[in-house]
Structures are given as structure tokens and as C-alpha cells.
User: Fold these one by one.
Assistant:
Number 1:
Amino acid sequence: LGHTPARSRSLARPGSHAAPARRLRMAGAAMRALSEAETNTVDVPVLAMMVPYLLLNLGIGLWASRHTKTLKDFVLAGRTLPFFVTITSMFAMFFGAEATLGSSFNMAATGLSGDVMADPYGGALCLVLYGLFYAVPLYKTNNLTLSDFYCERYGSKMGVFSAIVNTIGYLLWTAGQIVGLGLITSRTWGVPSEVGSLICTAIIVIYTFRGGMYAVAWTECFESVVIIICLIVMAVEVGRTSGTGWSEAYTRFGEKMEPDPSNSSKVKAWLNLFAMWLYLGIGSIPSQDIYERMNSAAKSSYARWGAIIAGVVYILVSQIPMYFGLVARAKYNADNCNGDILGCEGVSIGDLDEGIILDTINFYTSDGVRVLFYCALISAIISTASGTLLGAGVLITINIVRPAMPNVDEAKILQISRFATLIFAVCAYCFTLGDESISDFVNISSVWLMVGLFWPLTFGLFWRGATEVGAGLSMFVGLVTYTTLFLVAQKDANGDGSGWQMYEIDTSLWALFIALVAFLFGSLMPQRWQDGINLAMEKLLGWMTIFQNREGQIIKVDQMETEATAKASASLTLGVAHA
């Protein structure tokens, strides 16, 4: 999967011009090696608190699952989420392993010019943009899934393809959360990371399997409050014991957002910084994860303002893990450079992994505060992972399985959705057995959605001239271009050796631009050409049930409400007649 662009350069001395570092293919392996070194020690205070805390989360999820009776309840919590729960659910969507461990480590390794541009700043941008432009129009479509919009706007083939792309992206995103769970449990439970992450994943699956969005949303509400309280207490404790104030942490290293000075062109450098902002900034907009949370709100106004407020809260709370990263950098430099907190030649915290953040926090905090920290971490990761598991299971069922089995009733679809969630969790867990880090998984999943689905969604909502051919070309060309450039950049002399840059420009920007051109070309080409392409695609794929016309088969939320009311009335009438 390669490595994040920020990882391609180290900070020999923060604030100085960074020289290219060795490629860090050992990042995931180092994480596991460090984790295994800790497995002989059980952190008794943390373990004593974390186990009942996980059981409490499970209990809340199972309690909320009592309301899950129908498919609408499972997917959208009955579209009844209050305003505050909508805010916390959208906040929790991003505030997972990447926002806590990932952003802390990235801040320590590469500062404000590195991967923190993707998350948390890109994540906050996504929530604000979604609230301003996408939430209300998508809410009013009354669809169960985002891929239903693609199906309705562009045809059944695009609906299926968008669901496949989204599911693959979810696989990587969920894997990143599971890696974070393994890292935490290996340092506190005295078990290998694979075992700890498996146990935590099983807990998430149980309440998601039972309660769907009801269980996810209400556990996220509880977890978000815990996260914010714990992180504030942590920041006070770390600042006191380390003697490092908030402003001092930034000013001592001269931190500021600026492009990579090693790039030969300032324009290219700024483009690459902008690209990192777009990874999550627009890459997560066409995702089922944010759609299901927005669409579960009781009102469209809740969906809009919930996303905007969540974005503001997200960027504010995310400053705390970033502060921890700067404290970790100072401590690591002092320990390895004879007390020089600014660092020295040949020493870079970027050569390590996210585990160094946990080690630093353990050093500076008391047992009580450390327990709070691990509760906040586990809350953040569980809340994010549960939503992605639900989103993937629903997409697989509604937009991939159901088109192939059009006569299946709603009760059967609900059952299939639950088992699809379970199967997806197993697949995501298997992905974590490789050597990738949290940031690798999260960034690649967002880029995958950005180059494949962003333009069809945006133009489909706001341009009447968007066509099926344009959407199909954009999806196909964007994904093929990105994959090809990513592989070529690892070998070609004009690449960066890691796959993230070609001709010193981020490969995702190349793919995003080419996907835009492909969309406009396909939508504006003469109609007879488009008819010919559609006919050829029909001959190629139309014989399969999954790609056949689904007109009238798309499940509408308001339609489900009408049917539920009709069934209740009929049942009441039958009861009166019987009486």
C-alpha cells in the first residue's frame, strides 16, 4: 500500500530543511515489534477500568438495539436522531485511530506541514463542506444508501459500481481502526496486538449486528462525551508534568503550515500540501459512513448544522492529540540527543511508529489520568469502527446482494445486512495482519473514494447535464489512473519511490484532474455516442441480474414510513373487527 507522502521525508531538526529519509516499509512491522515487547506486562489500572468500560459500551449498544425492528431502524435509526446525537455521531465518524494516535505521531514526525493536513484538518473540512452543500440535497432524496442515489441518477450499473468502490474504501478505513485497537491492547492487556484487536472487534460487531444505527449512534454519543472530557484532563496533566505549555510546544519548533521546501517548484509544493487537505476533505464526502449519519437525523436542518458544528468541534478537540505529538517529539529528542529537545543529526522520531505516543503519555501521567487516556482512545476508535462496519454491511446488502435477489422481502434483507456486517469485520481484521500503519490505511481509503466517486456525486447533485457515461468514465478512469500512477511512481525515475508523487506532484491530484476531464468529456459527447456506449455496456453486463434495471425497486425512506403506517392501520382494523 505504500506510505503517506509525509513519511517520505524526516525531520532531522524540526524547522530545518528536511532531507529525504529511507522509505519506511517497516512502519507496521515496527509497531508490532514494539507491541510484542510490551506483552509481558499488564497495565493493571488500565485493564481494570477498560474491561468494564468496554462492557458498558456493549450494554449501551444492546440497550439501544431494542428499538431496531425494521430495515429503516437498522440503517437509519428510524430517522429519529436528536440534534445533539447527530452532532456527536458525525464527530465520532472521524475521531478514531487516525485523529488520536495517527495525528499525534504525524505531528511529532512531520509537524503542521505533514499528514495532519489530511487529518484532522481535512476531516474538519469534509464535515463543514458536507453540511454546507451536500447534507440537505441528499437528505431530501429519501434514499437508504448513498449508492441508491448513484443508481437513481445514473442507472443500476453505476449504483453497483459505487457500492463496490465504497466497500473497498471501507475495508481499508476499518483496518486502520483495528490496528489502533491492537496497539492499545498490546500495551495494556499483556496480549499480542492481534488478540487484543480481535476481542475489541468482536465487541463492536455484537452491538452493531444487533442494533444497527440505533446502537452505533447512541454509543457514539456516550463515547464522544467521554473522549472530550478525558482529553481535556489529559492535556492539563501533560502540560503540568512536562513543563511544556501549549504555545511553547509550537513556538519552540517554529511550527507553521508550509509546503515541502525540498520540492524544486513552489507551485508543486503548494499543490501537494493542498492534495493532503483533499484526501479526507473531499475524499470522505462520497462515503456511506457520513451519509448514514446525516440521513439518520430527525430533520434536514439537524443534518446540515450537525455536520457543520461537528466539524468545528472536531478541529478544536483534535488540537489536543497534536499537542501530545509535540511533547513526544521534545522528549524523544532530549533522550537521544544529549538533552537537546530540538533534535540532532541522524535522529528522527519519524523512524518510529504510533506507539511512541503511548509511551510518552505513560511517562508523563499518573495512573488515574492514564486510565482516562486509554478510555478516551478506545472510545474514539470503537465509535469510528462501528459506523464503518455498519455502512459496509448495508452497502453490500442493499446495493450488491439485493439487486441480484430482487424478490427478497425486507425481513430477509435485514438479516442479510447483519451477517454482511459480520463478514466485512472478518475481512477488515485480516487486512490488519499486513505491515501498514494507521495513516496508510485511512489516507488510501479516502483517496480511493475521492478519485472514483467525488465528481459523479457532485455533478449528479448540481448539474442536470451529468450523464451515466460521464459518471462511468470518471469512476473507471479516475481509479485506473490513480492505481497506475501509484505503481509506476514506485519504480519510475520520475516518481518518489513510494507511489505518492509523480513528477513531484501528488498522484491523487493527477487522478482527480483526469477523472474530472473524463466526466466532462463523457457527459458532453454527442448523444448518439453515449447511446452506443450504453448499448455496449448493456450487452456486456445486462445479462446479469445485479446490473439490470432497478426502476421501482429502490427503497425510499418515506415509502417505508407509509408502508409501516398502512400495516399498523390494517392490524388495528383487523383487531377491531375480530373484537
Note: The first strand starts at residue 501 and ends at 502.
Number 2:
Amino acid sequence: SIHSVPHSRAHHAPPSLRCATFLPSLRGKMADSSRKQANEFASSPLSKRSGYLSTPSADSKSDFAYSGGALERFVFATPAFISIFMITFVTFWGARVSPALTVVFICCYVSYGWVKGIHSAMFSLFVGIPKCHAYRDANWHELAKNPEQKSPIIERTFGPQGPVFKAGRPALPILSSEGLTEYQSLTAKFDSLYHVCVIPTYKEPLGTLRKTVGTLHAQSCAKEKLIVCLATESRDTEAPEKVKALLAEFGDGLLGLFYTTHVLAEGEAVGKSSNTAWAVRCVKHTLVDTWGFAPEDVLLTICDADTYFDVQFMDCLAFHHAQDPMPYNTTYQAVECFFPNIWAVPIIVRIKALIDSVGFLGQLASPFSHPFPFAIYSQSFKTAIDCGYWDVDIIPEDWHHFLKCWFRRDGNFRVVPVFLFMGNDAIEDETWWAANKARYTQAKRHAWGAIDLAYIVCQYVARKDRVPFRKVYKLFSHASEHHISWTLYWVTVMLGSLVSTWINPVLETYPFGIGLRKLAMLCFLPMMFATTMFMIGDFYIRMFLLHDRRHFEANAAPMWWQVLSQIQWLLMPVADLFFGSLAGLDAQLHMAIQPTMKYEVSTKVSKDGGLKPEGGSSEYQSA
């Protein structure tokens, strides 16, 4: 149930932002002090750079997103009301009340689908894939050491003035909080940065964790710059032994390897958000409060337990951060894909994974999209501290944390793409039925993100004197489009014209004498072009961008089978029905009736450790 828990006030007010200007002596002293503390940490024995963290930072508190107010409950029910209203319109009463409006709506909505599909596919093929090639071929460490070389970054992602350091002009000022160090060169800023990667995990197989930590261990800066924290749950009694095994295998190759144990507190939701909040607070106590790391010199990455990193990711991330004129108002998002085990999953799970992978690349590449973080994302440690860490009563933590930062920065917050592929396993289980059921559960959990529409509304009401309505409206529109429009699409396309014609026979010939069904089919034809481009994008990414990536089995199937299996795209409507429309409606109705959710973590397969379910489920205890 919704708990009436007062919001934490510790970090709600964002610091005032301005262009950082400091005396050179102060800048030097701050930089030298931070560097000295980091060097002391790096030179300390492994026993001090690893182990169990149990103490959170004294100046941090658990933040709650929802209080159970009437406005929240009203907006919780709104997505379900809109969906039911529109579904009944296209399948029942619309054809009776206004045949003309029904025809216009169905044809426009069908066209909206292929416009979005072609848009994502075009930008994936002609912008995203070339950028992924350029990012893959670049040496990001060398680019930082030789600033005169041109990087493959799309400069518009940093704003109209482009990156901070650019040949032929003075460095741009950094929009930051008062008291931060301002570096005078790209190399100096790049060298000052350290990385913390937090991996929330609950009963993950050791083999899966070994692969994830292994790809972090393989980072080009791992030994000098990278600290890993495994965020475990107290209910996972086997976690300490897994951490011990990982420490023995990878400890010497990382700057640090810690783990935390999250004990669920009253009002907290079981899941990644509450676990991450506890882990980051403990890391802050150890690195910032105890060892003296400067928060602005630490980049924080949150990932899933089955994340397979590109070997240059951390260097690439540091380069982006060093070039960002708004480094503390940014979340960095890599290209997430589900290709590592794509040939081991059921066919409709595979289809949905391919659509999501290619489509997400297109969203990141397009200047017309509004990308949100998804599963694997990074930001400055200072940003996480200023914005009050992660809310603990949340299930879909990636979108929600972005929204929280967005409002804490008064709408002055954005996502910057990093065009390196990050792999996550698609849902795999012991049987065909179990895998599809698990994928449906995962889709419902993702669709639960519609609950954040209430968060946007309530935050605007509380901050309307500080956040322009125009910005909030744009944010709300993009979030609504994602959570509501695609839930309706399958019903509109597959049932709308057929059922409406049954309800009102006039639509057999109206309009133009051809009838609604034939007109809707004509409107749908361009979707075939969009699907073809998705197929090409899928093939190209697997064959030329991921063919040699560690832990990726993207081309494990024989080539003849990969070609023949393209008939699988005929099942795309089935995948959209179960993992789009039905899962979305299920989540929305659940949210409207009772805004609580059972958190079920998906089953994972460890190729070197066997299949092990992640271990049951727990009741979602708050909205």
C-alpha cells in the first residue's frame, strides 16, 4: 500500500548553478588534495581497498518519492482510464457515435506507428551505426592525451556551443556548483576522474557475476581508476561467498572491490532502487568522507548484474564527462542491447529483444527523440549526492532517478549518449513456457514505470515557481507517449478497423468507397519498410559490431539459420501483443486498483555455472 512517509529534506534543494570561476591557487590546492587522497587509496593494501561496507554517509537519508496523497492516486489511475477509453473507442462506441472520427483516428494512429518505426530505424542505420563504428575504433585514452585530435562525439549533444575543450578557441566555462575545481585542460580533467560501478544483485549465479566483473576487470583503466561495489541483499545468504570468490579472482586488477548488504527498511520497495540507494550512501562514506575523494572527480555507473561492458567504456565515459559543459546536470547513457544470448531464447522473446535493441540505438542517435536512461547509466557522484541519491520506494529506478535529478536541477538536466554497446542477457529459462512467462513479468515491471507520470505531476505542483511549464509539458508528453501510446497500438492496428466495421456496417464502404479495413491496411504498408530496416540493422550490428565481443553469442547460430529465421519477423504482432499491450494494460490496471506490485526478478542463465533462478519474489511495499 501507499505509505504516508514524509520526504527527506536532506538534499532536496539543489545548489545554485553558475559558471565556475576560482583563483588559480585555490584550484590547484583542491586538485592536489583530491589527487593526494586518491593516490593514498591506490597505494594502500588490497585489504583496505576491498571488503564489506556497512556504514552510510552521515549526511544522507532515505528519500521517498510518494506520500499517498489524493493527487498521486488520481494520476496513478489516469493511464488505465485513458487506455480503456481509447480501446473502447476504436473497438465499440466510436464507430456508432462518429464513423468519420473513428476512421481519422485509426488511420492516423496506424500511420503514427510506422512514422515512429521508420524514424528509429533510419537514425539507427544512418547515424547510430556509423557512430558506434567510430566509437569502437577510437582510442579514447589517446584522444584525452592529444586534445588536438578530433573525437567522434556528436557535438550537438553537449549543447549549441559544443564540448568544453575544442581546438582554436578558449575552453568553455563549466556550469557547476560553487567550490568545485576547474581544470585548465582536457588531459588534466580526464586524469582527475575515477570510476565507481555499483552492481545491484540478488541471488545472481556466480557465473553471471563473474562475466560482468570480468568485463570491468578488462577495462583499460581498471587497476588505476575503477572501483566496483556489489550491492547485495540481506535475503541472499550466499552473497558473501560469491563476493569472496570474485575478490580472489579480480581484486588485484581493480582499484577497489567492495560489497554492501541492504536490509529492507519500513516503507522501502524490494528492488534495484532501494538497494542502489544504500550502496551509494555507503560508498560515499568510505570514499568521500573517509578517504577524501572529491565527489566531482568520481563518475558513478549503475548497471545490472548481467552487464557486459565494452573494454573502453570507462575511458570513453571519462572523456565525455571532461568535455561536458554541464557535467553535473547530465546522465550518460550507453547503447544497451540484448544480443549476448539472442539465439538461446524463444522466438517471440528474441523478436522483442531485437526491436528494443535496434530501436534504442535509433532513439539515442536522433536529435528529435527524448531518450531516457535505461538499466545502465552513469553520472557524476556529485550529481547523485546533490539530488538526494535514489528513492527507496520505487521499482523502475532508471527513469525515476532521471526524473528526480531533472526536477532537482529545475528542468536543467539531460541524457548524453555514449555510442558503445553494452550487453544484457535476454530472458532465458529452462522451458519455452517459463521463458515467455518470465519475459511477460519483466515487461509488466517495465510498464510499471507509468507510475512516474504521477511523480512528474506532483513534482511540478511543488516546484511550479522554479520549473517552466513548457519543459514539464514536454517531459510529461514524452513519458506518456512511451507508457500509454504503445499500449494502445496493437489494439488499434489489429482490431480497430475489423471490430469497428462489425459494429457499424457503414464502414464497409466508408470512406471513398473502399471501407475502413482496406484503408487501414494501406496506411499500414509503410511499416513493412520500417521492419525491413530493423532487420538490416539487426544483421549489421551482430555481424560487424558485436562479432568479436566477449560473452556475446550474437552469431552463434549458423548463417543459413540466421537467414532462414528472418521469417520470425512475422511474429512481431504476437510479441507486441504479449510484451507490449497486454503487459502494459496489466500494469496500468494494477496501478489503478492497488498501486502495489510484487517484484519478481527474472531468471538468468549462467553459461559456466548452470541455470539458477534468482530466487522467488517479494511484495512491493510501496508505490
Note: DSSP finds 20 helices and 15 strands in the chain.
